[in-house]
Amino acid sequence: MGIDLVGMEDVWILPAIPFAVFILVSFFGRLIPRNGDFIAVLGMALVVLLVGLVLVDFQGAFHDEVFAPIAGANTYSFDWIDIGDGFFVIEFSTYVDAVTMVMLPVVSFVSLMVLVYSIGYMKGEARYGWYFAALSFFVAAMLLLVISGNLLQLYLAWEAVGLASYLLIGFYWERQSAAEAAKKAFITTRIGDVGLLIGIILLWRVTGTFDIQEIIHAAEEGVFGQTYLTVAMLFLFAGAAGKSAQFPFHVWLPDAMEGPTPVSALIHAATMVVAGVYLVARMLPVYDEVLIARDVVLYVGLITALMAATMGLVATDIKRVLAFSTVSQLGFMFAALGVGALTAAMFHLFTHAFFKSLLFLGSGSVIHATEQQEVGELGGLRKKMPITALTFTIGSLALAGIPVFAGFWSKDEILHDLQHYGPFAAYVILAVTAALTAIYTTRLVLLTFFGKPKNEQAYEHAHESPPIMTGPLVILAVLALVVGFITYQGVGESLGFVGGIGELVYLPHHGPHVFKLDIAFAAVATATAVVGVAIGIMYWWGDARRAIAAQSWAPELHQLLVRRYYLDELYQGVINHVVLGAAAVVAWFDKRVVNETGVDGSTQFVGFLGYRFKFLQTGRIPHYVLGMALGVAALAVVAIGTT
Amino acid sequence: MIPIENFLILSSLLFAMGLYGVLARRSAILILMSIELMLAAVSINFIAFATYLDGEAFSGLVFALFVITVAAAEVGLALGIVLRLFRERRTAYVDAADSLKW
Lengths: 643, 102
Prior knowledge:
The complex is a heterodimer of chains A (643) and B (102).
Chain A: H1 13-28, H2 37-64, E1 73-83, E2 88-96, H3 98-121, H4 128-147, H5 151-169, H6 176-207, H7 212-220, H8 226-243, H9 252-255, H10 261-270, H11 275-282, H12 284-287, H13 291-314, H14 318-338, H15 342-370, H16 386-400, H17 406-421, H18 424-449, H19 456-461, H20 467-482, H21 489-494, H22 519-540, H23 545-553, H24 555-562, H25 567-613, H26 621-641
Antiparallel strand pairs in A: 1-2
Chain B: H1 4-24, H2 28-53, H3 59-89
Helix pairs in contact in B: 1-2, 2-3
């Protein structure tokens, strides 16, 4: 039936297709009608289809073999460079297991939704074709990242993804702020990437291989020294923290909102920023060997989640609120990984991708219609944009963690695992953050879609978006509603899997677990979320009187949050003093020593010598003959002297 | 037979006088004459050695013949150069040819 045509060993095709689209559209886009946007969409649809086939193959493997999801199929390997007969091998290898199978549908499906949506959103924009080319390049790199079987290939894809992010954030490069934001994103993640590379090299030094599974086995067998491995994994985490905008690298994500909104939806919500989560999830068995490093992951996740939630509370640009929300939710995922809860983290990654991209696309719909991004200019839009309002609300409810919606199940899973496996304080912090999440989400919805419109002109101009944009919104909203139920064994089995997500994605020594609803726990989580929503409504309903009053209670605190804890100023100060200071020293050396003394000095010396010696050239023949005679005499003396 | 040293001293003196002439004379013709003097001195030297040191081998005498031939050819060329110089500078004084001065 053709279902056997594409199996897990063929996943290398998945990145190849969008890459081919990228080449096609960037080089020949001008010759193709509509600049090739439909090619990008068709290519993506094909990828989704193929992912489906791979999924079927994956399900089959599960039913046939002994159940071992993390020891998946190392499906395809190809040695490219082999130096020293196995000493240093660069190979292209793919690896498919349950974690990969969570990422693949997320990346491909959300990309498809974003591409379709972009046809409507980016209509009439300059460099339309390049947009689709760059997006396709990004998807190719991301797909390559998630199927990578070895760390070097992953690093390559990692950098490519960072490049794509730079290109897309700086899409409107005519705007100074966009160019700055793109630079900031790339440089901040680059700092983390250095750490990642160091970590990879450290791991290679001991094991001699870049292959992920081999490294995991080596770590489990105790080949590494504890301190050495801890350091290596911390470096690796630095890369993950950079890419996933965790503290202290989170500064680039809010500014990355300068890019087109569908880009924010895809890259900075659903896919690229989860690359860090994916990396740590992949290497989690190794983190389990060095619990100090794993604890660092937990703490960073907690700090980030709480910090970002507080900043999202006061942000006034829709996209910025969502950006802080993303950082916060990524913190949730890292916190889960920090206690070894692979299932919870991957599950939250899965649900978050759908509802966060939904929220971003919804905000894009609003921006497209009103030309405004500040909530201070919006309000009451639910009457003018019903579909957008409804889907956005569904996404918000999912984000807030209201039961039935997808976010509830995954967030509940995380809170549950944190309470069981982690320190109680961690659970409390995340519970508070969850409440804050509900608060700022409600705030955002109320300020944008409810109440009285604050900018009459924007309100008049507002209209519902065309179907090509609302279509993906609706699809994603449906998913945000139902996708949470895959926790249940029954749901999983009816879809052809062995069970719910707990039986699919798990760490070997945790074992699979069948999800059972802990009513008491869920009630507490729900109560937190509901209280958050209630607070949100209480403060921001109508004309938001209470909120405005609250702002004047503690203006310094408000400023602290608005200025993002002054971290940007701190970093700029460090750059100015440390980096530019060092640069000044080097510049002095280059100017004084190398240039003035070395280069100019040499020239002057030669000139001086020339001036002194030129007087020998009198031009008068008798002088020259004298020279010849003296020379011969000298030679004669030497010749006679040496006989 | 008079001792060979007499001839050697003679040739040295002649060579020295010729060298002095080359270095100290201004006129190109006189320089040429001095060069001829040097060549003559060298010839005397060769012949002296040929005669006194080895009666059978007369390579020194042959060499003297060569010297005469070379001298003749060289003077031909040299006079051509002197003529050129004279046409350019209207004088045969050798210090007129100082265009390569610094």
